[in-house]
Structures are given as structure tokens and as C-alpha cells.
TrEMBL record, chain A:
This is ABC transporter permease. GO terms for cellular component: plasma membrane. The chain crosses the membrane at residues 16-37, 80-99, 120-147, 159-183, 190-210, 240-260. GO terms for molecular function: ABC-type transporter activity. Pfam families: ABC2_membrane_2 (PF12679). Signal peptide: none annotated. The keyword Transmembrane helix applies.
TrEMBL record, chain B:
SUPFAM superfamilies: P-loop containing nucleoside triphosphate hydrolases (SSF52540). Coiled coil: none annotated. GO terms for molecular function: ATP binding; ATP hydrolysis activity. It comes from the Bacteria. The keyword Nucleotide-binding applies. This is ABC transporter domain-containing protein. The keyword Electron transport does not apply. Belongs to the ABC transporter superfamily. It comes from Candidatus Berkelbacteria bacterium CG10_big_fil_rev_8_21_14_0_10_41_12. Keywords: ATP-binding, Nucleotide-binding, Transport. Residues 9-232 form the ABC transporter domain.
């Protein structure tokens, strides 16, 4: 099992390194802008008041305080760019982990070995989990080091909470995507199904903020539970977020493992 | 039960349907220890589907597959430790080298004692990435991976596809060497001469159904040739109405014959005539099926 795990990690190391560096570079970019933003904080704050409340809420900017690093990063980096990088990294990993192996026929090399399908699945799953952990650690707690480097004030506790929230969001997204990878035999379908669902959830979250009559739709969106501002600024994660993210992760993983053990695998 | 133990591979009434397509429809055969067993059929006959069921890649709709007395589905992990498998149209990881593949398999199956010999035998360079390899070299790597851990059973799906005649002969020789060591070989092919050359017995499959299980000596009687003869002058075609000879077409200067079984009688008759040219080709597997199996049924 370890051989499959390690080989998968090695095969995907370039994309992991690229996405992790991108996450750090984005952080560095936002941090380099921050002193200038701080200087203009008052006028920017005034400008924000001219925006409709529902619009600010839809894009997670309702509590934005421009002279606070955590508030600034929660909006600029962690509400959109970080999830985007995370989703691209993990959906592409899961598409290649199972579906591409089936599509290209290389799954037969694995299946011909004296290793159970469950072990093959979990070797692949944990390789992705390893990617997830490395990416989360590289792209969230690294803010502390970068903030020190730029001489910007920060509150370290928020980044630990943010890492936990980011980890859970990533785990749910990744596990769901792995389920898609097991269900389909083509990586294109995995990308389409996973990315499609995530885009739908993002749109649901925005629509639910804009119109009171459909506000309950937010409960069907990961982006509602992934409240970066709450985690970074107030060091708080909604209890419901734990249940939703972990529930989706566990359910998707169990279903994927069972289905992979039972399904026909042929090119 | 004793029958199951004596046969290394026992397939009984195997059925696998994909929707309305009956890929394998009631296939049964058994393979004895130490024999080279051919699984012959044209493309799309159901050979690969049956093999995938044997390897537990896909699950049969009904029927039973037993290998070394163990159920091929419920005990597939234990069985795969004893099976060397070559996939048809060998699918490999493009960005790995041959050595990466070999090391990966060794990490799971254990260190190979013969991999160096096999690499040498096949004149294969394992340091080149798979994406740069020709079809023949990919096939060589697939064979090395299947053989390197000296399995008790070899399941080879079209083992000589993409190989030149010299390498094909290497494969036949290596396969026989494995047989001499007590290995049982199950190989699929759509190439009748290949099966004749190497196998002890053959199962013939067509449209998902078993046509026959034959000893190779019996199969040789079912050989068929297309013979086109061009004469220097007019000829009475009726003189060629011999046993096993069928006149397919009469041309102004020649005749097309279909010859079943022994080809010598037609040559004896041809010797009595002035012949300008003779073209002989072995019948395709499709033609043999039509002649010997479809008609019989």
C-alpha cells in the first residue's frame, strides 16, 4: 500500500509544489499591498459604505476592516483565491488518481498486483490527503512568517483556526471529488461534476445573500460554512461547519471506497 | 472438488453482459497444470472480457471461475500473488521509465531474481520513459513485468501483439521455458499460426460463445488455405473437384480454390498441368470459424 501511496505522491509532486508556491506568492503579494491599503483605510472604508449591503455580504466583505490584516486577507485571499487554488489542486488530483488510471488503462497494472482494491483506493486517497495537508500548511500558516518578513502586525491564533477551517473545507471538497473519480471512468467527467457542483454552491451562496426569499439556499453551499472572516478575525468556526464538512468527507469516502471495491474496472 | 484442484483454471458457464451486448455468454473451459492453453478468437470475440473476469477486474453476471482451487473473485488478492498478467495493448504510465515500473512491481511483489536476464533477453533499455517507447518496446516491458516474479500461472492477453517475428519467437521460447519450470500458461490470441506453434490445447471463442476446445493436433486438421492458380492454357476445373477442395471462382486464366485440411492433393493435381503462377494464403480466423464452426452449428 505504501508503494502505491508514495508513487502517487511522487507523480503529483510538481503540481503540489506549483500550487503551494502560488498560494504563498499570492499571500506575499497581498501582504506587500497591505501597508498602502492601511494608509488608505479610512477612504476605502467610506467607499465600502456606498456599496449595497447585500452585495458586500454576498462576497464576504460585510465586516471588512482595511487596517486589520486578518480582515483584509479573509476577503482578498481566503474567500476566493485560496479556495480556487485548493479546488484546482485537489479536483485535478482526484481526477487523475482513479478515473484517469481507468481511462488510460493503467489501473490494470495496479489491479493485477496482489493488493486489495480497498488498499489501492486508500493508498490513492491518502496520497491526496498528503497533498491537501501540505497545501494547507504552505498556504495558510505561512502568513505568519510572511507578515513578520513584511513587518505587518498579525494575530497568530486566527491562522491556526483558519488552517483548521481550510483543512475541513478542502477535505470535504477532495473527498467528494474522489467519489466522482470512482463513479466515472473519465477524468473530464470528474472535473465537470466536481467543479460544476462547486460553482453551483458558490452561486447559491451569492444568490442567497442577495434575496431574502431564497436565503435558505445558503445551507446547501460549502461557501456559507467556509466563513474565512469568522475564522480569521473572530477566531471562530460555526459548529455546523464541522458537521457539514466532516460529514460530507466521511460519507463521500465511505461511498467511494465501497463503490471502487465493487465496480467493474475496464478500459 | 477434486476436478477443481486438478485443473489450474476452471471456468464454468461464465456470462458477462454489458447492457444488451453479450460479451461473454456461457463460456466454460479448464486448463490443466503445466500446459500452454490458447484462447483463440477474432477481435471482439470476448477474450479480453473473459480474462478480465478471471483477473477480477470485472465481475461476471453468472458462472464461476476457479484458479488453483480458489474462487477468482473472493480470493483474488491471494491468487494475484501467483499470477503474472500481461494486459492486451499494454497500458503503462507514460511518465515512468521501465525501471520505475520494475521497481514499483518489486516493491509489491518482492525482489525479482530474473529481471536482469529478461531485460537482456528482450534487448530492452529500462531507462527510457515509456512515452518514448515504440509499441514493441512497451510490449517487451509488459512481458518483463508479467514474468519477472516467476509466477505459477501466466495470463497473457495477446502477448506478441506489436512484436517483430524475432521477438515473437523469443516470447514463444520464454513461454516454453516457463512451462518447463511447471508454470501454466493461458494466452489469448487472434493468430491461429501462433496458437498452433506454441499451445497444447486451445479454446475457441466467437461472439462471446465457446465454439470448441481442441487439442492443437485436431486444430491442424481444420487448417484452410486460399489458393489462386493461373494456368498457361485452358483447364477443366472439374478435375480439381477433390476432397476438401472447393472452387470459389473461375477466372479466364485461372481458378480460385478454398482448400480445407491437407493441401497436398491439389498440388498433386496441379503437377499435371502447366501452371503460370500460384498464390497461397492462410485463411483468416473468421473464414475458419465460418467454415468449421458456424456451418457445423
Amino acid at each position: 500500500m505504501f508503494a502505491i501511496f508514495w508513487r502517487t505522491v511522487r507523480d503529483r509532486k510538481i503540481s503540489l509544489i506549483i500550487y503551494s508556491i502560488l498560494g504563498i506568492l499570492l499571500l506575499a503579494m497581498y501582504l506587500s499591498f497591505f501597508p498602502a491599503i492601511q494608509e488608505q483605510a479610512q477612504s476605502l472604508q467610506e467607499l465600502m459604505k456606498s456599496y449595497p449591503e447585500s452585495f458586500l455580504k454576498a462576497f464576504g466583505m460585510e465586516d471588512m476592516i482595511f487596517n486589520n490584516l486578518e480582515s483584509y486577507l479573509s476577503t482578498e485571499q481566503f474567500s476566493f483565491m485560496w479556495p480556487l487554488l485548493m479546488i484546482l489542486l485537489l479536483v485535478s488530483f482526484s481526477g487523475s488518481a482513479i478515473a484517469r488510471e481507468i481511462e488510460r488503462g493503467t489501473a490494470e497494472i495496479l489491479l493485477a498486483l496482489p493488493v486489495s482494491r480497498l488498499k489501492i483506493f486508500f493508498a490513492k486517497y491518502f496520497a491526496g490527503f498528503f497533498n491537501l495537508i501540505v497545501f494547507v500548511l504552505a498556504s495558510i500558516p505561512s502568513t505568519i512568517l510572511l507578515a513578520k518578513l513584511y513587518g505587518v502586525e498579525y494575530k497568530s491564533e486566527g491562522y491556526i483556526i483558519m488552517s483548521l477551517l481550510g483543512f475541513m473545507f478542502a477535505l470535504a471538497t477532495y473527498s467528494f471529488s474522489m467519489l466522482m473519480s470512482v463513479l466515472f471512468s473519465e477524468k473530464g467527467k470528474v472535473y465537470f461534476a466536481s467543479a460544476g457542483l462547486i460553482v453551483i454552491m458558490y452561486v447559491l451562496n451569492i444568490i442567497s445573500s442577495l434575496k431574502d426569499s431564497v436565503s435558505d439556499l445558503k445551507y446547501f453551499s460549502f461557501f456559507y460554512y467556509f466563513n474565512a472572516g469568522d475564522a480569521l478575525v473572530r477566531n471562530h468556526i460555526d459548529h455546523f461547519a464541522y458537521w457539514i464538512f466532516l460529514g460530507v468527507a466521511v460519507l463521500s469516502t465511505v461511498l467511494a471506497a465501497v463503490w471502487f471495491s465493487r465496480r467493474d474496472i475496464a478500459v | 472438488m477434486s476436478e477443481l484442484i486438478m485443473s489450474v483454471i476452471e471456468v464454468k458457464n461464465l456470462k458477462k453482459y454489458f447492457g444488451s451486448t453479450k460479451a461473454v455468454d456461457g463460456v466454460s473451459f479448464s486448463v490443466e497444470k503445466g500446459e500452454i492453453f490458447g484462447f483463440l478468437g477474432p477481435n471482439g470475440a470476448g477474450k479480453t472480457t473473459a480474462i478480465r473476469c478471471m483477473m477480477d477486474f470485472i465481475r461476471p453476471d453468472s458462472g464461476r471461475i476457479s484458479i488453483l482451487g480458489k474462487d477468482a473473485q473472493s480470493q483474488s488478492v491471494a491468487l494475484k500473488a501467483k499470477i503474472g498478467y500481461l494486459v492486451s495493448g499494454i497500458y503503462l504510465n507514460d511518465y515512468w521509465t521501465g525501471l520505475d515500473h520494475i521497481k514499483f512491481v518489486e516493491q509489491i511483489r518482492g525482489k525479482s531474481k530474473i529481471v536482469r536476464d529478461l531485460v537482456k533477453e528482450f534487448s530492452y533499455n529500462p531507462r527510457i520513459k515509456v512515452r518514448s517507447l515504440s509499441t514493441g518496446n512497451k510490449q517487451k516491458l509488459g512481458l518483463i513485468l508479467a514474468l519477472m516474479n516467476e509466477p505459477e500461472i501466466l495470463i497473457l492477453d495477446e502477448p506478441t501483439a506489436g512484436l517483430d517475428p524475432i521477438l515473437q519467437n523469443s516470447v514463444y521460447r520464454i513461454t516454453r521455458d516457463f512451462q518447463k519450470k511447471g508454470c501454466t500458461v493461458f494466452m489469448s490470441s487472434h493468430n491461429l499460426p501462433e496458437v498452433e506453434k506454441i499451445c497444447d490445447r486451445v479454446a475457441i471463442i466467437k461472439d462471446g460463445k465457446m465454439a470448441d476446445v481442441e487439442k492443437i493436433s485436431n486444430l491442424k486438421d481444420k487448417k484452410m488455405h486460399n489458393v489462386a492458380v493461373y494456368f498457361n492454357g485452358p483447364v477443366d476445373a472439374d478435375k480439381f473437384k477433390l476432397k476438401g477442395v472447393e472452387i470459389v471462382e473461375q477466372m479466364p486464366d485461372g481458378v480460385n480454390f478454398k482448400v480445407k485440411g491437407d493441401i497436398n492433393p491439389i498440388f498433386d493435381e496441379l503437377a499435371k498441368h502447366s501452371v503460370k503462377n500460384v498464390e497461397i494464403s492462410g485463411a483468416t480466423l473468421e473464414e475458419i470459424f465460418l467454415e468449421f464452426y458456424q456451418k457445423e452449428k
